[in-house]
Amino acid sequence: MAGTLTTSIFLNFQNKFKKRCKTLFLEAYQTSISNNSISLNFNENDITAILHNYIDTNPKRKEWEISSNLENYIFENDTIPIKGFAAKFSRIDMRYSTFWKGEEYKYFVEAKNLKANDSGSKRRYITTGIDNFLTGGKYSDCDGFLVGYILNGNIQDCIIGINKLLEKDNRKTEALVSNTFLDFDLFSSNHTVKNLNHLFLLYSN
User: CA 195 to CA 205: how far, in whole Å?
Assistant: First the structure.
């Protein structure tokens, strides 16, 4: 009984931590809209850097005792350490972390630019976004969520396009489906090894 209770408490902590991470990201997005701080010709790293700055200065982050950093290197333990080896490590766009009962817990973010009229950006969202979190991917050991910065068109057209590509790849069961989170559409996809969450942030007019 005690073990079940402990597991329940941990899962509650974990879910609250993940929810807070997404909340910080969405509040940063709302600030970026209010400040008109994103241009449609920005690279995804430019947008993430701006949003991370808003996350870093959000008082809730300190209140919730969450730290964050940009471009987190994924250390590869089997790498032979020779000059320049670290530059070859994979980098995920952002990392959140917090401590609970002396243990550190991490939650990662990978972001991609998306355009409704560009099938290449939707294909890239799958191959360098979704697939990197799955078995054999660069971030397969990372727990995290994906973010799509929509710079052209609307969210629904981007989702339809991504799902069509997944169906074309005989991955219809992995299609993105909608849920609601803080009045935003939070999408999820179910894969063999894990479920993934997806946030789509609209910047196009």
Answer: 31
